[in-house]
Design goal:
Blueprint (H helix, E strand, L loop, with lengths): L1 H17 L13 E2 L3 H4 L4 H13 L9 H18 L1 H9 L2 H8 L3 H4 L2 H33 L5 E2 L24 E8 L8 H6 L8 E8 L6 H8 L4 E6 L10 H8 L9 E7 L5 H4 L2 H15 L2 H9 L4 E3 L2 E3 L9 E3 L4 E4 H4 L13 H9 L5 E3 L16 H10 L1
Parallel strand pairs: 3-4, 3-6, 4-5, 7-11
Antiparallel strand pairs: 1-2, 6-10, 7-10, 8-9
Length: about 400
């Protein structure tokens, strides 16, 4: 009986080894990962905060009041993000003071006084710091617990099956690069129309133009968008599914467009979108500045992008942010989702998959390109670009002056 069990365990172990993935790169040892790595990455900052609030006040959050959504966001982004965005989280908690007044019986006039405001903010910070500390402590304990487990070769998830094999040396262009512009529009509101003016100076200099349009009952029609952009675009339209927040939008259009792209050694694709379509971004001055900066550094700077690719970059963008905010494999992304890809590299293993989330096009570079194969034209190590205080405005003016 024992011999049979041992034989089955050995057979199972061998089968698992045969199913593992090893990086295909000459001279590179097999990639390994701890069996419990995924568990180590699971954060509970929001869960700890919610539990503490419930214990202190009896308030149990719900989706309708936004409490569960906030806890979910904190869990997904982890304690480092929570620490960096502490004031944002304090503001979210302060917005629930009416609930606290109802539970405690304290009059709303008192709860909204200057004195109460000051001490409630102190209390909110203490609660957040406690949740961050507990999450980090649990993560450290879990790492210590599994540190002695033998690492096995890493399995390749379905998302990464077609990730490109990065060449060890730069692949030179053999002729003038052939450029394609892929531009996505979700024509919600009127914010997308300002991009017609932004594209006008450079749009006709691309060898090929593909317009992706995601439409739904909240948007302009595809015909209206095509009339605005002109008839010289190849148009790919998809019906946007609003079941999940604002739908997949450009993920849905890019999934149809990327298989249409050529894979020659001289092919380069510039990817951009009509940023500023949602209600909270359409008239946001920080978003407008950020968008214009991406035009300046990527679409208006194609020679700089091509030079970076000639030196070995497989993907080029600006506002590169480091960390795992979007759950990406290589822990980086281009904030704002303007970037250019070297087709010959990006698609050498097929078309890499997208996360099926609304931010899937923003996470796509960091899901499939190691940091060393990417290049940042401007503003590496960016922070929260929705905040004017974290936008490198002076640096952009200096960058433009130098060119």
């Amino acid at each position: 009986m024992h011999e049979t069990t041992a034989a089955r365990l050995a057979e199972m172990h061998e089968r698992r080894r045969n199913q593992t993935f090893t990086k295909v790169r000459s001279g590179t040892p097999p990639a390994t990962v701890n069996l419990f790595k995924a568990r180590v990455r699971t954060h509970k900052t929001g869960t700890f905060l919610a539990a503490t609030i419930t214990w202190l006040t009896g308030i149990e959050g719900s989706t309708s009041c936004g409490c569960k959504n906030l806890a979910k966001e904190m869990n997904q982004k982890g304690p480092d993000w929570c620490e960096q965005n502490l004031e944002y989280l304090v503001g979210k908690l302060m917005g629930k003071r009416d609930m606290l007044a109802e539970v405690t019986g304290v009059p709303a006039s008192v709860m909204n006084s200057v004195f109460a405001d000051r001490w409630l903010k102190v209390g909110a910070r203490l609660l957040l710091w406690n949740a961050i500390r507990k999450d980090r402590a649990e993560t450290a304990a879990l790492r210590a617990k599994v540190s002695d487990v033998v690492a096995l070769p890493m399995r390749r998830s379905a998302l990464h099956v077609n990730s490109p094999i990065i060449p060890r040396t730069p692949i030179p262009f053999t002729a003038q690069p052939v450029t394609t512009l892929v531009f996505h529009v979700w024509p919600h509101g009127d914010g997308w129309r300002r991009h017609l003016e932004k594209l006008a100076p450079i749009v006709d200099s691309f060898d090929r133009k593909i317009l992706g349009v995601a439409y739904d009952h909240t948007t302009a029609t595809v015909a209206e968008v095509v009339e605005a952009f002109g008839c010289d675009w190849e148009v790919v339209e998809v019906e946007n599914n609003l079941d999940t927040r604002t739908g997949l939008r450009e993920v849905a259009t890019y999934q149809k467009i990327f298989p249409m792209l050529p894979t020659g050694v001289n092919d380069v694709t510039f990817c951009a979108h009509a940023k500023g379509a949602q209600k909270h971004t359409a008239r946001s001055e920080p978003v407008t500045w950020w968008t214009d900066a991406m035009y300046d550094t990527i679409l208006y700077n194609r020679s700089g992008v091509i030079d970076a690719m000639d030196n070995g970059a497989g993907i080029v963008g600006s506002f590169r942010r480091h960390g795992n905010q979007l759950g990406v494999r290589h822990r980086w992304h281009y904030s704002g989702t303007f970037y250019a890809i070297r087709n010959h590299i990006a698609f050498n293993s097929g078309v890499p998959a997208f996360q099926q989330r609304w931010w899937g096009t923003e996470s796509w570079p960091g899901d499939h390109f190691p940091l060393e194969s990417s290049h940042c034209i401007f503003a590496d190590n960016s922070g929260d670009l929705y905040s004017v205080a974290q936008q490198p405005r002076l640096e952009l003016e200096q960058w433009k002056a130098e060119r």
